[in-house]
Amino acid sequence: MTIRFVESSKLPTPWGMFVMHGFADDGMDKEHLVLTMGDMSDPEAVLTRVHSECLTGDALFSMRCDCGPQLQAAMHKISIVGRGAIFYLRQEGRGIGLLNKIKAYHLQDCGADTVEANEQLGFGADMRDYSILKPMMDHLNIHSLKLMTNNPRKIKALEDMGITVTERIPHQTGRNPHNAKYLETKKGKLGHLFDDANNEI
Length: 201
What we know:
Strand order of the largest sheet: 1-2-3-5-4-6-7
Radius of gyration: 17 Å
Distance between the termini: 35 Å
Shape: globular
Order of helices and strands: EEEEHHEHHHHEHEH
Oligomer: single chain
Strand content: 25-35%
Number of strands: 7
CATH architecture: 3-Layer(aba) Sandwich
CATH topology: Rossmann fold
Largest sheet: 7 strands, mixed
Low-confidence stretches: 197-201
CATH superfamily: GTP cyclohydrolase II
CATH class: Alpha Beta
Number of domains: 1
């Protein structure tokens, strides 16, 4: 695996000024981003979101998933505390790519759930590779996280790499009638941790 840092720049957003760090994954011919706010050299655990790219949710306002609201909520939470990081990984569709994701959406239109659709296309339920995070975190001197996630597999992947997750911050937002089945599948088949009492799942 070859992850190399390219450059950093300021990124003004509605939630405040972030610094955007660009990394190239030469082996996979992909580009990844990290948005940071505040001092990363402080040894205190960093409020962090590991977010996989979702063009439909992040940029096109799709209501089929909760990705866009999760990204915006993470930026908002970091702006409140004034320090944090968002790792934006170019792993569209849980790692199957944009066009295969559209094929999976078509199968979901025909009645499959999100896991069944991936499997019918010959993929695993989740093809993402979190090992790419380690060299990016090392570059930014981030070794301890307070992780905004509902996904216990993400926590395990980080801990297996030697990254300390001191706290899991529940990150539930964006439930709507179009993604209710999707969220139930995440909980039932992928083990995501949702608070049933919280309507904003």
